[in-house]
Amino acid sequence: MELFVLFGTFAVLLLIGTPVAFCLGVSSFATIAYLGLPPVVVFQRLNSGISVFALMAIPFFIYAGELMVRGDIARRLVALAGSVVGHLRGGLGQVNIAASVLFGGISGSAAADASAIGGLMIPQMEERGYGKDYAVNITVVSSIIALMLPPSHNLIIYSISAGGKISIADLFTAGILPGLILAMSLMVAAWLVAKKRGYATEPFPGGRAMLALLINATPGLILVAIIFGGVRSGIFTASESSCIAVVYAIGVTIVVYRSLSWSDFVAATMGAVRTASMVLLVIGSAAAFGWLLAYLRVPATLVEMMKGVSENPIIILLLLNVLLLFLGTFMDMSPLIVITTPIFLPVAMAYGVDPVHFGIILILNLGIGLCTPPVGAVLFVGCAVGRIGVGEVFRTIWPFYGAAVATLMLVTYIPALSLWLPALFR
Amino acid sequence: AAACETTFRSSDTHPEGYPTVTAVEYMGELLEERSDGRLCIEVFHSAQLGEEKDTIEQTQLGVIDMNRVSLGPFNNIIEETKVFSLPYIFRSTDHMHNVVDGEIGDAILAEFENHGLVGLAYYDGGSRSFYNSQKPITSKDDIEGLKFRVMQSDVFVDMVDALGGNATPMPYGEVYSSIQTGVIDGAENNWPSFESSGHYEVAGYYTLDQHLIVPEVLVMSKAAYDKLSAEDQALVRQAAKDSVPVMREQWEAREAASEEKVRAAGVEIVEDIDKTPFIEAMVPVYEKHVTSEKLKSLVEQIQAVD
Amino acid sequence: MKDKIRTLSSAIRVLTTVALWLSATGLVLMTAFIAWQVYGRFVLNDTPTWTETSSVLLMGWFILLGAAVGIREGNHLSFDVLLFVLPDRVKRVFYTVSDIVVIAFALGMVVYGIQLASNAWSTTIPNLGFSGGIVFLALICGGILMVLFSVERILRRMVGLPTARFGEDPVEED
Ligand code: NA
Ligand code: NA
């Protein structure tokens, strides 16, 4: 019954369009009241949920992303990507994906990737005769790459949700190969669709032009080196690296490129505050929701149920993937990480899955959820940037979903893809 | 536990199988048996219900019924508990046992009742010592300039600073990789945590200076306690007391197992260290933190116990 | 009526701007604090012990103020699939129900925030020296702003003025 109140209130509020953070908060509130417990707990959990040091990486990486978009770093990365892969079949589509790899190496937000790269690429692609749906499809799905490549604040949320004992540095390293595999399978999908539709390619600009573009984009690329090098050499911790990214972005855009005016700086800061506080309020409310799940013993019950279904880890992982994909289509990423990690991680670990490996599965899985209706923040961003209806995009996006799901299966069943690199670095 | 009339929800931040968790589970078995299955305990381990600061509040509010917590978070709430968190206040684990099992221990447990809690028992929390990745610390001078991660606590920061180190507050989850990459040189903890966190893999030197031998407490919500009949209250108290020897036994076993694993991994252990310079360095720390007459007298009383 | 609410809106817009600037200042200060923490530890070998706790404190402030602003500007994520297919009249009813739900929760933030703050008032934050109660002030202030902004939304909708929602253009001032 308590669970009915919790999930029932949540579902009803969600359906009538109440903001997700408040759906989580009010359904927890209602359940606590139903149980006859002091409601103050809900607000204590909300407050504790947002008072976590490692969470700071989220506003910082969002902030760094805003600065880099407004300070011209993102555009230079796109230009570089264009010179490298523009001559492949699907030309600008391939450029879009490669740009996501470059941008993903400095940003951990899929929404930032979709709006930054999408904002630059979609108009260009349209102009050169690519279908708008094709441009948006690629923009949306390839932005998952930003979640997989370091830095990824969602992996930090995962580490916190798992009790803060999983090494963030390991998680960051673990995402690299799966992220690159995702990029490659998307490139194949982009190639196939482009071939079918008969899209043109870009001319190869030649080595000299490439070098010029590389030099032009170097300050943006150096950030990758700084973050990685700084963490590996002990100058700062993985979560502090987010702050260094901000400091560096400010430095480069103001001093090196002189591309960031005072009003750009204010706009970037305000933009970061708006996005980050929305995301973090959801995390705080999800902490209250998660407390109730634990109090009502949902994770333990679920583990028992799963064990009743099968003893085979392959089946269990498949089941977890399907469940996560299902949940991911209805809910957004950060609350789902916070809610599902304490439930699913023990299940996965009971079947011998490494927590680092599971983190990568979880992020990739929920990342796909970001691109699928009904609740797909990245899909919405992509459609908004491209000014195209969700329905139209949804009709032709399937090859790219297919590439992402194929990557998910590879990552799920070949643990080495996630675990080999961290072991190498350790 | 379907037959239980009342099931107490008890919180613990340690994982399943940890001595504190099994001790409370054992207490639950005793209670169920002695109450003919009426009273049971369900342990929510691994911080499922929140970190200690939060679960203390939840226990005070009567949201959860029991809580196994370290004394540190209470220092802010119950002044008397501060004495147990002073560096080098206990000479040895036996000394600590003698204090908490005696009058001083009872008096401090009784203080919890003024804060919506009933203090049921003291559990062992082991003794905390320094470890680092740089060199064996054989004297106080070796600490000079080393960066040690400490918990967010004024006493701890002041202690490390007084020893000449660089106190660095940092979330626990970041310590492993921070020692590995050299962001910090080391940290401090007891054998089981040194081992289970894997920190011994990256910090090869452990010096048993035992600066902190702080007990932990098992508390009950006063709201839940007051609902019980006098007989049931006695049952709860007795079951808690009876879980203590079991807890201590398991703690020792756990400590020994961790020590064996750490030693087998080749960590260099400095055992016989002259603690006098360390204790002498604590004079300003005591001056700063032992301010009231009540605390001063408690410190003297503890020092007078064998 | 409409004019009165327009006047109210322009007053509230000032409040939003103030909250947003405070929030943004919080983020910039946080950046400075953590950068100083890295500098102090790595270069000076003397780690500032106040940076971690104070940044977490600032983060609470900027989240709750920023989230309140998000109510007014319609930044919060919601699930609009059902709303998509409903007629405008029903939609507006649901929007108002949502706003009332937000008000209820925000009132909870204020009332229980006060309770939490008074409980924690006598404690001190380690390495900072402030009272632990100030942690919850952000919850209270954010709650008050959320109530105000939601009431404004309901009033504006009643008289037919636009209100912002996630995914739409930021229609606000008319
Ligand atoms: Na990334
Ligand atoms: Na992209």
From TrEMBL, chain A:
<feature type="transmembrane region" description="Helical">
    <location>
        <begin position="336"/>
        <end position="353"/>
    </location>
</feature>
<feature type="transmembrane region" description="Helical">
    <location>
        <begin position="314"/>
        <end position="331"/>
    </location>
</feature>
<keyword id="KW-0812">Transmembrane</keyword>
<keyword id="KW-0813">Transport</keyword>
<dbReference type="InterPro" id="IPR004681">
    <property type="entry name" value="TRAP_DctM"/>
</dbReference>
<feature type="transmembrane region" description="Helical">
    <location>
        <begin position="397"/>
        <end position="421"/>
    </location>
</feature>
<feature type="transmembrane region" description="Helical">
    <location>
        <begin position="206"/>
        <end position="229"/>
    </location>
</feature>
<protein>
    <recommendedName>
        <fullName>TRAP transporter large permease protein</fullName>
    </recommendedName>
</protein>
<keyword id="KW-0472">Membrane</keyword>
<feature type="transmembrane region" description="Helical">
    <location>
        <begin position="235"/>
        <end position="260"/>
    </location>
</feature>
<dbReference type="Pfam" id="PF06808">
    <property type="entry name" value="DctM"/>
</dbReference>
<keyword id="KW-1133">Transmembrane helix</keyword>
<feature type="domain" description="TRAP C4-dicarboxylate transport system permease DctM subunit">
    <location>
        <begin position="7"/>
        <end position="417"/>
    </location>
</feature>
<dbReference type="InterPro" id="IPR010656">
    <property type="entry name" value="DctM"/>
</dbReference>
<feature type="transmembrane region" description="Helical">
    <location>
        <begin position="47"/>
        <end position="65"/>
    </location>
</feature>
<comment type="function">
    <text>Part of the tripartite ATP-independent periplasmic (TRAP) transport system.</text>
</comment>
<feature type="transmembrane region" description="Helical">
    <location>
        <begin position="134"/>
        <end position="151"/>
    </location>
</feature>
<feature type="transmembrane region" description="Helical">
    <location>
        <begin position="359"/>
        <end position="385"/>
    </location>
</feature>
<feature type="transmembrane region" description="Helical">
    <location>
        <begin position="272"/>
        <end position="294"/>
    </location>
</feature>
<dbReference type="GO" id="GO:0005886">
    <property type="term" value="C:plasma membrane"/>
</dbReference>
<feature type="transmembrane region" description="Helical">
    <location>
        <begin position="171"/>
        <end position="194"/>
    </location>
</feature>
<keyword id="KW-0997">Cell inner membrane</keyword>
UniProtKB/TrEMBL annotation, chain C:
<protein>
    <recommendedName>
        <fullName>TRAP transporter small permease protein</fullName>
    </recommendedName>
</protein>
<dbReference type="GO" id="GO:0015740">
    <property type="term" value="P:C4-dicarboxylate transport"/>
</dbReference>
<keyword id="KW-1133">Transmembrane helix</keyword>
<keyword id="KW-1003">Cell membrane</keyword>
<dbReference type="GO" id="GO:0005886">
    <property type="term" value="C:plasma membrane"/>
</dbReference>
<comment type="similarity">
    <text>Belongs to the TRAP transporter small permease family.</text>
</comment>
<keyword id="KW-0997">Cell inner membrane</keyword>
<comment type="subunit">
    <text>The complex comprises the extracytoplasmic solute receptor protein and the two transmembrane proteins.</text>
</comment>
<dbReference type="InterPro" id="IPR055348">
    <property type="entry name" value="DctQ"/>
</dbReference>
<keyword id="KW-0812">Transmembrane</keyword>
<dbReference type="GO" id="GO:0022857">
    <property type="term" value="F:transmembrane transporter activity"/>
</dbReference>
<dbReference type="Pfam" id="PF04290">
    <property type="entry name" value="DctQ"/>
</dbReference>
<keyword id="KW-0813">Transport</keyword>
<feature type="domain" description="Tripartite ATP-independent periplasmic transporters DctQ component">
    <location>
        <begin position="30"/>
        <end position="158"/>
    </location>
</feature>
<comment type="function">
    <text>Part of the tripartite ATP-independent periplasmic (TRAP) transport system.</text>
</comment>
<keyword id="KW-0472">Membrane</keyword>
<dbReference type="InterPro" id="IPR007387">
    <property type="entry name" value="TRAP_DctQ"/>
</dbReference>
